[in-house]
Amino acid sequence: MIRQFFILSSKGDPLLFKDFRGEAGDDVVNVFYRRVTALPGDQPPVVMALRDLHFLHVRQAGLYWVATTTADASPFTVIEFLNRLAALVKDYCGGLSEKSVQMNFALIYELLDEVLDYGYIQTTSSDMLRNFLQSEAVSSRPFSLFDLSNVGLFGADTQQSKVAPSSAAARPIQAGREQGGRSEIFVDVVERMSVVVGSNGVLMKADVEGEIRVKCFMPSCSEIRIGLNEELSIGKSQLRGYGAAVRVDRCSFHQGVRLDEFDSHRILRLCPSQGEQTVMQYQLTDDLPTAPPFRLFPTVERDGTGRLILFLKLRCDLPPKSSAVNVCASVPVPKGAVSLSQELSSPDQSAELQLQNRAVAWQIPRLAGGTQLSALFKLDVPGLSSASMLEVGPVGLSFELPKFTATGLQIRFLRLSPVQPAPSQRWVRYVTHSDSYSIRI
Amino acid sequence: MPYLGGEETVRELKRALSNPNVQSEPLRYRNTVLRVVRAMSQGVNVSGLFSEMVKACATVDVVQKKLVYMFLCSYASLNPELSLLVINTLRKDCQDPNPMVRSLALRNMSNLRLPSLVEYVEQPLTAGLRDRAACVRRVAVLGWAKLYNLQPGSDIDAAVVNELYSLLRDPDPVVMVNCLRALDEILKEEGGVVINKPITHHLLNRMKECDVWGQCEVLRVLQRYRPQSDDELFDILSLLDASLVSSNPPVMAATLSLFLSLCADLPAVSQAALERVSAPLLAACGSGSREMRFTALCHIQLLMRSVPGLMGPHFKRFFCGYAEPAYIKQRKMQIMVELVNDENVSMLLDELKGYCTDVNTDTAQAAITAIGRIGCSYSDRCLEILTGLLGLKQDHITSAVVQTMRDLVWVCPQCSDTVCSALEGCEETLQDSQGRQALLWLLGVYGEGVSSAPYTLEVFIDGVKSEVSSGVKMELLTAIVRLFLTRPAETQDMLGRLLHYCIEEETDMCVRDLALLYYHLLKCGIEETRNVLQGRRSDPSLGVLIGRPADPINQWACSFNTLEPLKKGATETQTASRGSPEHEASKPKTVVDLSETLGCSHVHADPPDQHSDSTAELPATPLTLSLSPTISPEEFERMWLQCHSLPSEQDAEESKDFLQTEKEIRCSAMLQRSPQILQAAMQLVNIQTLAFTPPCTLPWRVFFYTHTAGTPASSLILGELLYAGEADHQPAAKKDDEEAERKVDEDGQVEVKVTLKQQPKDEKAVGAFLSVLGTVLHTLSTE
Fold first, then answer.
1. Which of A393, A435, B429, B688 could pair with A332 in a Cys bridge, judged by C-beta atoms 3.0 to 4.6 Å apart?
2. ipTM of the complex
3. Where is this region: Disordered (chain B) (predicted)?
C-alpha cells in the first residue's frame, strides 16, 4: 500500500505530490528532503524511516520518485512499481526530465489517479490506461538543427533517414492519435557487460545482462513475431547447431509472450502494447563467446623527480567493422595529485584530472575495432611514496558499443501481422553498454 | 516552495474563472482551470477559488472535470459547506452513460473525505457495486473501504460485507483483488478478510488472470490460510511453483513469503524453496535498477542466514561495479565475507584490496573491516594486506586498519606480533578519535612488544591538554597504567604527570573519576592493579563462534519481503564508533551486543566485538544484564522458595509484582557433562550460575540469576535449568507444571526445561532474556 507519492527534483523542488489516503502531514516532502540533504554524498539509502513514515525512493532521470508506505510493505513491489511508473511517465510524456514532468503535470496526475486508488495499485498496463487518459502530452524536445539534417534538398529524404536517429524513440505514445505520427516499431537488444580483468590480463569475471525491448507506436498492431538466432542455446548443457553457438545461461520472458515456436524455431510471438516493454531478459555468466572488447597494457613508474608516470596502451578487440563510442577510462591516482600533463595520440581525445574523484579521466570519442591507442600521463604528486602505487587502482572503462551484442544474439526477422495497411517502419537496434568494466593494474 | 506573487495570481485567476467570455470557450476555460491546478501543485494557496471551481465542474469536458475534481478533493476539508454543492453534480455524473465519467465521479465522491457527506455517497456506491462496467465496480469496492475509514467505530453493514464477499467471484480480476483489499480494511478489527478453503482455491485458480500487482496481493492474503491436510498443502505448493521462479521480483518474493508461512513446520520444503528461488534473486541482483539490486542483495543476506552455502558458486556475482553506489558496495562486501572458502579466498581478497583505496571513505572503511573479518580465518594473508595499507599514510585508511587490527587481535591473539611491528609510526597519521583509541588500547595491552610504546604515549600525554575527546583520554589512562605494569621504569614519570593532570585540572567527570580510581588502585598495590587491569587480552571463543550455525528459517521468515532487511544495514553503517573489545566483556552486556557477538540474530556478523556505545542507535529494546548486586546462594534459595510459594497463596496484589514462566529449550545432551563450559558461557553474557548438580546425575539442575536494567525498572531474574533424564520420576515436591518432560531426538538433542522467576514483573525483559539464554545454549550445543 502506498500512502503518498511525490516527485522531487534533484534540487529538492517538489514537482508533484499526491496523498492517497488523507493521512499525510503537510510537510512529508520537506521531511524527506531534509533527511536527504542531511546525509553526506549523493546516495541516500533506499529506505528511510521516521516514526511511522517509511520512505522508499528510486532515482530516475535525476529525479527522486518517492513513495511512503507501511513497514510491512513489500519493497520489491514498491520499487518495481516506482520504476514502472517512471517508465509510464516516460512513455506518455515522450521523455523523462524535470522539464517534461513539469510541463505534463496534469497528465501525470491523471495517470496517478488511474494507476493508484486509495494507495492500491490498480493497473499499469498502458493498453488499459490508454482508454482513460485524456490529456495531451506536451513535448519538451527543444528545437534542434540536427532535426533538419535529415531533410534533404527540397524536402527529399536523404540517405541518412535510413538510420533512425537515436532520439527517434523518445516521443509520447499518444501523439499518434491526432497528429498522425508515423507508425513505427522499435526492437532494441540492449546488453550490459560487467567484466573484471586481472592484473596479468586474465579474465576474472565476465557477466552479461541483456534484454530485448519493444517500443511500439502502432495504433493497430495485433501480433509481432521476433525471430532470434536459430542456434541460440539456453543453459550449459544444451547445444544447437555446429560450433559457433550463441548461448545464454538463463532467460525469462514477459507474461504476454507466447513461446509455442520458441523451442523449435526461436520465435517470440507477442501483441505489443503501446509504449515500451521488456520482452525478454537473459544472462550469461563467465563464458563470453568472443574475447572481451578491451585490453589495457599499463606501465606505472616513478621517475627521479617524484613524478608518477602512467603509460597506458588501450587495445580494442572488436571486429574491424564495429567500433566503440564514448569510451572513458578512469584511472584512480594517488591522493594529493596536483597536476597532470598528458601526451595523447590524437587531438579528439582528452584527459582531465578530476580531483574530487581522485582519478584521471581519459575520454575517447571513438575507437575502431582492431586498433590501439596509447597515452602518457605525468602526474605531480607531492610526497609520493612507493606505497602510493597501491592507490593506482583498477581502471574503470565505460563505453557504448553500437550495433554489437556481447552474446552474439541477433534478431533474424521482425514480422507484423496482419500486414500493416499504412506504411510502417520497423527498426532493430543493438547496443552493448558497460555496466562495470574494470581492469586491475 | 515560496511562490512570489501568490495573492496576485489568485486574484487574477479568480477574475478569469468568473469571466463569462472565458466560460463560453471550452479551451480557454480548461486552460484557466489548468493554471489553477498548476498553482496548487506549486504550493500556492488557491483555496479562495473554491466556489468558482465548483461551478467549473459542471462541464462536458472530461479533462476539465478531472482537473476540477482534483482541486476539490484537496480543498474539500476546508470548505465542507460549499462541498455540498458539488455532490449534486457528482451524483448526476454517476448516472452518466459513459462508464468513465461514472467511475470518475464515484471515485472523487469517495475521495472528498468529509464525514458529513457520507449519507449522500452510500447510495451511489451501492449502485456502483452492481454497475455493468468493471471500472465502476473497481472504484465502488474501494469506495466502501474509504467510507468505513472515514467513520471509525461505526457499525459494519453486514449486507455490504456480504456483497463484497460475493464480488470475489466477479469476472474482472481487479474487482476481485480490490474486494480483498476493501474487506481487509473494513474487517480490520476482526483480523481482516476471512480466507477459507473455497476462497483459497478460487483465488489460486484465478491468479493467472491477474496482473503482477494483483498476484502479489492475492499471495499476501493467502498467507493467512492454513491447509487442512498435507495433500492440500502440497497441491497448493505445486500450483505456486511456477510463480516461485517468476522473472518478476515482486511475484517471486511474495510467493516465497507464502511458501515459508505455509511450510513453517516443514523445514526441508522451505529449504528446497530457498534453493529454487536463488536463481531469480540473483537475476534481480543484476537488474538495471540499482534500488532493485539493493533490495535483492538484502534479501539474499537474509536467505544466507539459513543456507550459508546458497550463493557459494556465484561469489563473482557480488564483485562491486566501480560506478555502483556505496550502499550496494557495502552489502556486496558483507556477502563476500560470508562466502570465503579455501578456493576463492585469494580472489576475494584481491577484489577487496581494490576497494580499500576507494574514493568514498565509507566504502574504503567497509572494505578494510571486511578484510579484518576474513582475517579471523586467514590471518596471515589479511595482515599482509592491512600492513601494506598502513604505508599509504592516509588518515581514514590508517584509522580503519588500526581498529580492524585491534578487533582481529582480540579474536586471534597469535597475530599480535605482526600487529605490534606494524604499529610503529601510525600515530602520526591517525586523526580521528576512534582510530587513536584503538591504537592506545593496542599499546596498553601489547605494549611490551612495541619498543616505542612509551614514547608514543608520551606524545599523547604531552598533548592531553588540547585533547577534546574524553574517550581518548580514558583510553590513554588505561593504556598508561597497563604499560606501567609491564615497563615501570620508562613510564613511571609520565604516569604521574597524567594522573596529576587528570585529577587536578580535568573538567570531564568521567575522566577524572577514572583517574581517581586508578590512583587509589595503585595505592592498594601493584598486584591488585595487575589483577584488575590485566584480565583477558583476547577471547578466542569469539573467533570460533564466527563459523556459526545456520539459523532456523522461521527466525527471519516474518521479515522476508518487508522493509526490515533493507533498514538493518542502514543502522549498522552508522555505528562507526566502536569501543575497545574488552569493554564489551567487562561492561554490562546488551542483548543486541550479545546476539551480534554470537552472530545469531544479525545477518552479517560484524566484527565480533561491537559496541556497547552503539546501542543507543539501535532500535531494539535495550535489555542490559548485569551481575551486581551479587546474591549469595542462601539469599537465592530464600527468594526462590518465596517466589515459589506465592502463586499458591493466590495473593493477587503480590503476584502482579512477580512473574513465573517456563519454557523448553533444546540443546545437546553433552551439556550436563561439562558445567564449566556452561558457566563460562553464561558469565560471558552476565548470567551468574550459582549451583550445579554433579554431572551425569538425574535430575540435573542448574540455578542461576541475573539483573536486567534499562527497561522501565531494573528487575531480578532467578532461573533454573532442569533436565529430568530419560526415566521421568520427579519427586513430588515440585509442582506438577514444573514436571519436566524430555524427548531425545534422533540427533541427540534434549529438551531442557527453564523455569524463570522475576521480580518485579516485566514480560518484555523476560522474553528478551529467554532469547539470550536460548542463544547461549544453542551456540554451545552446536559447537
1. A393
2. 0.88
3. 568-590
